[in-house]
Every structure is written in C-alpha cells, then in structure tokens.
Write the structure tokens for this entry.
Amino acid sequence: MSIDSERIELAVRLLGPRLVTAGDIILYPYLFTEDYPLDTIFTDVEQEILCGWRDVICFCDNFESASKLTEETWGFAVDWKLNRRKLAALIRTALTGTSQGPGLFELLLFLGKRRVDRRINRALGFDNAVLDLLLQFGKRNFETLF
C-alpha cells in the first residue's frame, strides 16, 4: 500500500495532539486503509439509523463544509429523536471500527463522501464490489431489466 505524503500530512493535522510521537500514527490504520478491523455487529435499529444517516449525508450538497455536515447530522438526530453523542459514536464506529478518534465532522471531511458511503455500506454488510458493478452497469441499463 502506498500512501502519499499529502494524505499523511492531512492525517497528522486531523489527529493533532493525539499524536505524541510520529509512530503513533500506526494506531489509526482506518485513516489509510479500507481494511481496518470492523468487529462490531450493529443491531437492526442501528443499521436503520446508519442507512438513514447515509442517505442524508451522502446527498448533502456541500460535503466539503464541516458546518454543513454538522447541520445535516444534528438535523437528522432531531428528526429521528436521537441523542447526538450516541449518534456520533455509532457513526464513528461504522466509519473506523472504534468509537474513539478525531472529531466526527473533521473525520468525514478527511475521508470524503465516497469513502464515507463505502464504509457505511460495509458496516451495513453491503458488498461494495457488487455496488460498484451496478454503478458501472448504469442506471438506464439497470432500469430496463425491470
């Protein structure tokens, strides 16, 4: 796996004071690979929440704005009558395999919309390879099948 220096620099800024030494960056493999441990089994309710949040956040007009992501996420929490802290922990666990780490919205910006979508899909048990094939097949071709 090759990691470019720009990505490492962004990760160092994201982690900030969490990095005491340069070697501490290996404690955050989820920043650099999609093959991070995800041992959590999400309940049906948690899966429904993650699916609903993904649908809101991945269709967000401005994924490059932490304030917009915050607004959308907390709006989702209000609409679904969820505790913000518990929602943030659920999302972070789905995205990273752990409930601890950098700020959620900074993490979302670091990962980007495509990675966030793929990681939530992974947490929900969807096979991203199959989803990629469907995207390549094209919506118009897919619709003609039905």
